[in-house]
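Re: that backbone. Tokens:
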């Protein structure tokens, strides 16, 4: 299975699959799915956390029910690619809460941003007030997401 750490066994994988499927499960529920008792399951979870394999848990919110009706993906090309320019851009990206993810790319564009906004007017204001003034931006192309066919952070364990 690629480069999985050698001390990860099938029981650990069952634990990870269960937790990845539903992060709100109790240790008792995870243990049952993993086929072990609660105490060893709890110890294994702690070991997986200590090893940095489990890096956190999160709650997924329904963006539409909270008024965020539009998702935009923007590809950004920077003028310069030196360390200082990249760091300045990254610092500013972290300060904009509407940007949910920003990934550095190898290719025609340098960054891919996933942006959530209430509506197109919100996006237009964000572009005018914040995005066009991001440090070093040469070009930006944006598309509105019409439908999300698949969206997961689950690993194929």
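Recovered sequence:
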């Amino acid at each position: 299975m690629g480069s999985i750490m050698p001390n990860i066994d099938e029981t650990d994988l069952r634990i990870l699959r269960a937790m990845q499927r539903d992060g709100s499960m109790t240790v008792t529920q995870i243990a049952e799915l993993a086929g072990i008792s609660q105490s060893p399951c709890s110890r294994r979870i702690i070991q997986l956390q200590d090893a940095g394999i489990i890096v956190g848990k999160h709650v997924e919110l329904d963006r539409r029910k909270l008024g965020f009706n539009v998702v935009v993906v923007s590809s950004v090309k920077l003028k310069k690619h030196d360390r200082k320019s990249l760091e300045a851009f990254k610092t500013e990206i972290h300060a904009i809460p509407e940007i949910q993810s920003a990934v550095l790319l190898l290719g025609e564009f340098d960054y891919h941003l996933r942006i959530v906004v209430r509506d197109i007017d919100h996006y237009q204001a964000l572009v005018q007030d914040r995005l066009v003034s991001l440090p070093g931006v040469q070009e930006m192309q944006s598309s509105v997401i019409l439908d999300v066919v698949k969206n997961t952070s689950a690993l194929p364990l």
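The first strand starts at residue 70 and ends at 78. The domain at 10-50 is CATH 1.10.10.10 (Arc Repressor Mutant, subunit A).
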